[in-house]
Amino acid sequence: MTALPHTRRAGAGAPPVARIPFPTVDEVSRHCAQDEEPETVLIEVHLPGRPEPGRLREAFGEALRRHPRILMRQAPGHRFARRYHWELTGDADVDPVHFPPPGPDALDEARARALSVCPPLSLSPPIRLDVITPVADGDGCVLLLTINHTALDGPACLRVLATAAELYGGTDNSPAPPPVRSPGAGTPAGTVVPADAPGGTGWARPARVAADARTAGTGNGLLLTELPVPRRAPRGAGGGPGYTVNDQLLVSTALTVARWNLLHGRPTGPVRITMPVDDRTRGALMPIGNGTRLVDVALSPEDRADEELLSAERPDPEAVARLLRRTAQRTRALKSVSRPPLGRGAALLTAPVLPVAARAALTRRLRRAVAPWTSTTLVSNIGRIPYALDFGDAGRAHAVWFSAPARMPRGLTVTTAGTAGRLHVALRWSRALLDDDAAAALARLFAQSLEVTSAVTSEAASEAASEAMPERTWGATSEAIPEVPSEATSSETAPGGAG
Fold it and tell me: Rounded to whole angstroms, how far apart are CA atoms 135 and 457?
């Protein structure tokens, strides 16, 4: 986001309109956009009360003006243009705040719309905020923010929502400082773990999540659940376990994929997971846009003999511990490396040498060609929500979910956030890969795998993990399934990024 804006005249008597060239992430996303699987990011905030519509609309509008980089639309371009451009509009073209009629199905319908209808790039801002009251005579509400991922990412829009909360409720929503962690044993900062190092995948094709859909559909499905934050081993003389909750989430996902594929007769590895990394400040001056960079983490064990132990119904604890330590080394090394957001190849591909239409066609062909080498899945850990999200008379947020797009060939994303001492997990999948029943079964495996990575030995905790199940499956055919246990646990999470 370092390009300086230039201006053009909007017409006789109209003020100048600032224009910003599309950064690399925005351009690649724009090239690969598909109506069948819209690139939407969802943020779902649960409040105990209901905001007053007029005041909320006014507060949200002022928050947009305080973060003017969100007030933009794609500028019209000619056939041989070398770049796409954003136009900064200064004010909204349309009112982004909507109050759908209340009712028991209002939240289901809003979620389905968020998964299937992407806010257009032609109108400013490319976001939509639905204020949902699920039951006409009940308490509380849900703020559902739908974001066009070509323009913006989740952390940036959460920052705007925090500003709106501060303006509405009059309470300071400055970000809380991150938790202080003692350094654990592992790879020193700046050390690069090469892709072909022991435990890496090298040039091998990553495992794909086994398909399990009775009828292949279009679009995405979404499942939300609330789980205990995984516990870690007590700190020892060596400085602690040397891994973070983020590492536990990555390993849990790898265990889930391995077990799922084994049950479906598919290869259990190598597993490679894409992880967004976000180094931006969370204060009022946070850069708005797509500000994360993507890194791929190899989750294969160092010892080949561990592969069978990790994909067992009850993974071997020592093998899991070895994989956690290996993963921690790799994530620390990858986070310390400075690189373009999508890698040097994408930066070269978006260089304005050819007309943007020609680059779009080339990008789509390359995406199809490299599909077999695309990572197994994406895990985006937002970490502990840094803002109070206090909306005054409507109350403070008690649950926040994020959801990243799940296009094929990955077809599956796991997005997590920590709120009020709980881990809020969103599983999103392509309906070409999974149906609702299969996704619910995969989510149960994830809950069990997450508990495996926790340093818990009591029979009670093990029994609770085996019974942990998601709350509901959301999509065209939602149905209730048993609720997750609600044991209180530590709220420490590692800060990450959103898709």
Answer: 41
How many residues in total does the chain contain? Answer: 499
Residue 177 lies in a domain: no
User: In this structure, how many other beta carbons lie within 10 angstroms of the beta carbon of residue 345?
Assistant: 11
What's the structural domain count of the chain?
A: 1
Q: Which of 90, 31, 96 is nearest to 59 (CA)?
A: 96
Q: Which residue shows structure tokens 């809003």?
A: 110
In a domain, 225, yes or no: yes
Which distant-in-sequence residues (6+ apart) come within 8 Å of 378 by Cβ? Answer: 273, 274, 275, 276, 404, 406, 410, 412, 413, 414, 499
CB contact burial 189-225 (16+ within 10 A = b; e otherwise): eeeebeeeeebbbeeeebbbbbbbbeeebebbbbbbb
Tens-place pLDDT, residues 381-421 = 999 999 999 999 999 999 999 999 999 999 999 999 998 88
Q: Could you give the C-alpha distances from 208 to 260, 264, 295, 444, 450, in angstroms and in order?
A: 11, 12, 18, 19, 20
The answer to whether position 264 is within a domain reads: yes
Tokens of 400: 């926040």
CA distances from 223 to 196, 465, 479 (A): 35, 18, 11
Cα radius of gyration (the chain): 22
Count other Cβ atoms within 10 Å, centred on residue 311: 20
- The number of angstroms, rounded, from the C-alpha of 88 to the middle of its chain's C-alpha atoms is 26
d(CA 219, CA 196): 35
Whether the CB-CB separation of 156 and 70 falls below 8 Å is answered with: yes
Cis geometry, peptide bond prior to residue 270 (ω within 30 degrees of 0): yes
332-369 tens-digit pLDDT: 888 888 777 777 777 777 788 888 889 889 889 988 99
Instruction: Give residues with Cβ within 8 angstroms of 219, minimum separation 6.
Output: 36, 37, 38, 115, 116, 430, 431
Range of the domain at 245: 1-172+184-499
The answer to whether the predicted template modeling score (pTM) of the entire model surpasses 0.70 is yes
Whether residue 72 contacts residue 87, with contact meaning beta carbons closer than 8 Å, is answered with yes
Q: Which amino acid is at 97?
A: V
Cβ neighbours for 445, distance < 8 A, ≥ 6 positions apart: 256, 259, 260
Query: Measuring CA to CA, how many Å separate 433 from each of 72, 219, 257, 290, 499?
Result: 34, 10, 13, 27, 20
Q: What tens digit of pLDDT does each residue of 42-80 get?
A: 999 999 999 999 999 999 999 999 999 999 999 998 888
Q: What span, in angstroms and rounded, lies between the C-alpha atoms of 469 and 448?
A: 9
- Which amino acid is present at 388? A
Full DSSP string of 11-27: STTPPEEEEEEPPHHHH
Please report where in the chains the tokens 């105990």 appear, as a residue.
48
For residue 172, pLDDT over 90 is answered with no
Helix (H, G, I), strand (E, B) or coil at 349: helix
